[in-house]
Amino acid sequence: MNEHLQTALDLAASQVPVMPLRAGKVPFANCRHCTGNACGGRPNMKTPGPCACPAPCHAWAAATTDPDVITSGLWRRAWLRASAVAYHPGGAGLTVVDLDNADAITWARENLPVTQTVPTTRGEHWLYLGRMQSANKVRPGVDIKSTTAYARWLGFGTGTMTALPDAVRQLAVSKPATIWPAPRTVTASAPAGGGECPHRTPAYLERGIAMAEQRITEAISGVHATVYRTFLAVLSTHGRCGCLTDAHIGRLFTAAQGKGESLRHCTDAWGNARTALGL
Questions:
Q1: With CB atoms counted within 10 Å of each terminal CB, which end of the chain scores lower, N or C?
Q2: Nearest Cα residue to 62 out of 29, 15, 108, 23
Q3: Tens-level pLDDT at each residue, the chain (279 residues)
Q4: Do 39 and 49 touch, CB atoms closer than 8 A?
C-alpha cells in the first residue's frame, strides 16, 4: 500500500481527519464541478464536509476519518500523486502554533506553555489540546492552524500535549494590524446588477466570499496570481447579479493585503478581472 495512504488510514483510525497534499505542500485543486465554489461549498465555516463531491476538494474541509472515502477511487489516485499527508487540527480537537523560524521559536519558549513539539523544515509545530479560529501572521513567523486550516503531518514529535492556553487564543484576538494594514477605503466598486442573487440563498454569497478569503489567505506561493484568479471567480459568479457590495470587496482586499499585496495591486487585479469578464 502507498506509504501516504497507510499513514492517512492510521491517523483516521485515531479520529484525526486527513487529506492528501500535492507538490508544494498545497491541497489538490477542486474538481471541475466545484471550481469557483459552484457546488455551494461547505455548509458553514466551522464544520468540515463541503458537498457530496467524491474528490478531495475544498482543502481542509475535505479532511475525513472515513476509511471508505480515503480509499475510494478518486482519493486513491490522489494518494499516488501526493507528496505528503495533511490533517485538520480543529477536526481532531487540536490547535497548531506554527513557528516558522528560530526567532519565532525563541519567542514561543519565552511566552507559551510547554507542549508537544514537532520539528518542521524551518521551525516547529507546537500542538495544544483544544480548538480555536485559525489565524495567519499573528506575529512575525507565527501562524495558528485549527478550525479552518490544515497542517502537514510530520510525526508525533516529543513532549506532552498541554491544554490550549489563553495566551494562544489572545494571539488571534490581538493580531497586530501593523504587519499588513488593511485598506481604509475600498477604491473598487461593485458592478451594478439586478439586485438579489438569483443563484441560491444569501448564504451562498456569504460562503463564496468566505471561501475566497480562505483561498487567498492560504496561498503559499503565486499570491499575485491567486488573488487575480480568486477575484475572477467571485466576479464570474456574482458580478452580474448586483449582490456584491463594497463591504464584500473590502473583505477580499483585506485578505489580499494580509498576504502582502498592495492596495494598488488589489485595485488593478479587481479591474482586470472585471475587464476580462466584460463587466
A1: N
A2: 29
A3: 789 999 999 999 999 999 999 988 888 888 877 776 667 665 433 444 446 788 898 888 889 999 999 999 999 999 999 999 999 999 899 999 999 999 999 999 999 999 999 999 999 999 999 999 888 889 999 999 998 889 999 999 999 999 999 999 998 876 543 333 333 344 455 554 444 555 556 677 777 888 888 888 887 767 888 888 888 888 888 877 777 777 788 888 888 877 777 777 788 888 888 888 777
A4: no
